[in-house]
Each structure stands twice: as structure tokens, then as C-alpha cells.
Amino acid sequence: MILARSVFVPVALSFFFAYLLYPVAWQLEKRGVHRGISIFIVILTAILVLGGIGLYAGIKISNANIDYAAIQEQIITKFESMQKVLEKKLGLNSSAMDDAVNRAVNAIGSSWESSVGMFFSRTTSTLFQLFLLPVFTFFIMFYRTKTAYFIFKIVGRKNKLVTLNILREISKVTGKYLGGILLVVFILSILNSIGLLIIGVPNAILFGILAALLNLIPYFGTLLGGAIPVLYVFFSVSDPFSMVFKIVILFIIIQFTENNLLTPNIVGNNIKLNPFAIILGLLIANLIWGIAGMLIVVPVMAILKIIMRNIPELKPYAYMLSDRGTEKYSFDFSKIKTKFLKLFQK
User: How many Cβ atoms from other residues are within 10 Å of residue 227's Cβ?
Assistant: First the structure.
């Protein structure tokens, strides 16, 4: 899976793109449009929309007013002040700290050079994978009936009904999850950008959209999305602590809103995986396929859980992945709210 990632990653991503685009293509087919033509129209429209979004993001990034020299100066100033505090409070040797910092800077520089070299060496491969995405998506959608018959032939006549139920459940859960999560990202982009603009963070729209996109990665994405504007403000503003505090409060409020209002009502509880399984899956997916693996691992685990839940021998594994079995220990916000109101009335 690691050696053939250049093939498997586009196939996996195309599989989920097909689930997203299928309802629109199916509506065109029902109106008499040929399957191939309807799929082509839908994919072309998606490419134009995503291309427009990518172009807008590229323009915003290129026009971002980031003064790297000023940031570097702020980093040096803050490090010197921190060095004085450590030297005064803990008695640390300043020359030893300077030596450690120089080694770290050299290491970062060498790793940056190697990363740039790897970027240029992989550019051709990345472009080839992007070209494969619409091609794979087209054929997955075009051959969906043939694929279903292929699966029925493998499982046999006696398991056809169970297999049909599995395929229908996978289609329902995957489509609703993917569509819902994209809508949540769109709403979070607006909320993040407005909040950062009100606080006065430079390049607020860029950081707001980036934080929303990182939210596609469960748990880790939210932390990274909030950390980026915090670090930028800390190293670019002379007196950053008030603004950093406001950013932290903003992302806590938005995260609470996303977890308790947006995701439950838009995405629903179709996935129902326990947090430990999700975190473990994210780490394994990152090890195998990197960021792409982290983006798709949650729906993949949900599909595996659906399959295992419908096969008697594999039901224990589905139970282990699910969020069942810990209901008595879970936090019920409605009960907490009721108890709080009773205490307040007393």
C-alpha cells in the first residue's frame, strides 16, 4: 500500500468523489441524458468549481501581505527576551542556548532545502495523480452497475440480499457524510474569517479558510487550524498576547459550535466511531498515505464497520470500532444543564 500509493491514493479519492457527484449525475440520467454524457458534465462542472476555488486561494496566498523580515526580527527579539528570563530565573548558560539554537536553525535550513528538492522531484508525479482523479471518478461512476454485479457474483446467490443491504447502507452513509462535512467546512470558513477579521488578524480570510480545510482531519486538524494564526500573530505582532488570547477564545467557541450544532445537525451521527479508533486510524493512515490518508480514513473506517456489522463472524470488530458500550460514562450536556439550573434556582 505504501509502495503503490501513487495509484491507490487517486483511486481512493476518486471513489469518494464518485459518491459525492453520483446524486447529480443520477438526476441527469433520469431525465434521459446518456450515462457517459451526464457523468462527464458533472465532473467537468466540479473541475471548474474546484479550479475556481483553487485559483481564488492561490491569488489570496500570493497577495498575502506577510513581512518575513519583520517576522524574523520579532522571532529574534522574543527569543532574546526569553533567553534573558531563563538565564536570570534558572541560571542557564546563554552561550549553550545560542549554540543549541544555531544547531536547530541549521537543521531546519537543511531540512527545508531537502524538502524543496523533494517538492520539485515530485511535481510531475503529483500532476499525474491530479489528472487521474477525474478519469478514475468517471470510470467508477460509469461502471457502478457492473461493479455491483461483480460483487454479487463473488458473494454468491445466498448472500446477495445481505450484500445489497451493505451496499445501500454504504452509499447512504458515505454520501451524507461527505456532503455534510463539505458544508460544515464552508460554514466554518465564513465563521473563522469573520471572527479573525473582527479580532484584527492580518490575512484573516486566508487563515480562516485554511483552518476550516484543516478541520477535515478530525481532532488534529482543529488544533493545527487554530495554531497557525496564533503562531503568526505571536511572531508578527510586537504585543501579541491580547490578540492571541482572543484567537484562542474564538476557536474554542467555534469548535464548540461545530461539535454540538453544525456536525450533529448537518453530518448527523452516521459514522458513530469511537474517538480512540479514529485517532489510531489517523496515525496509521498518516504512516501509510500521509495527509491524503488522514482525509479519507474516517469514511473508510465507517465503511469497514458497516461491512463487519453485517457479517456474523466480524461483528465483534464492528462493536470495537463503534461508540457503543460506554453510554453510561458519556457526558450528557442536557442532564448537566438541568442540574446546573436546579442549583441556580436554589
Answer: 15
